[in-house]
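User: What would this chain look like folded?
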Amino acid sequence: MYRKVNPETMGRDKFEAFCFSLGLKVARPRNFRKTTDSFGVERFPNLIEGREVTGVNQVLVSDITYYEINGQFTYLTFIMDLYNREIVGYSKSLSLRTITTTIPAFNMAKKRIGPENLKGAIFHSDGGGQYYAKAFIRITSSLGMKNSMAKEVYANSHSERLNGTIKNDYLIPYNPQDEADLSRELARAVLMYNTDRPHKSLQGKTPIEYRRDNPGKPMAIKKITTTIEVENNSPSYFPTSTVQHHHQYV
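Assistant: Here's the prediction, encoded as structure tokens.
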């Protein structure tokens, strides 16, 4: 918020204290329940750890999460360009099948980026079955892409963090009431994330701004040594990670 408002009369710490004094603070419950069991599933080596990314279309990262409306779970798949944190593809479905999750999300990304620009690119994910299903691998292989997988959850933390951001900062405040409403609000959330959300790692710019202003500035992917929190599946809190056992559905 500080970067967006950019107040001239106070620094970041004073600004935060001022906001907190007015009750402008979002309580974030800790996550307790683990909702993915992809630990130890490694179909492809991790190709992105310690790698330097010098532009867009070099490394795409993805994950599947879920959102609940009136007891109905909807599965959300996001694909993000790691260089500028831009969501380039996503899908929403009521099933965890590959043809309703990763494939439509990837088809959106392919259309947005252009298939000719994906040759040699790395597609990184967790060990979910939708990412090593034959139908999905055929698509990435046909484009000359390299598949990469995280052995542990924290090795795909960029996607995990994106899941939480979209749900906690956009969808929950938007409060969609049904599936049709969720489709509209999901599209709005992706648009706002790409065009209106500044990132500290992007010099305070939005994903779209960074892509425009930094077409070829190197960015190293640091080795991740800390684990992320696992999910809380209680009715009062929407989880911020992948759906339980999602790698079983191919």
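Helices lie at 2-5, 12-21, 102-113, 129-132, 134-142, 157-174, 179-196, 207-213. If you want, I can go into more detail on any region.
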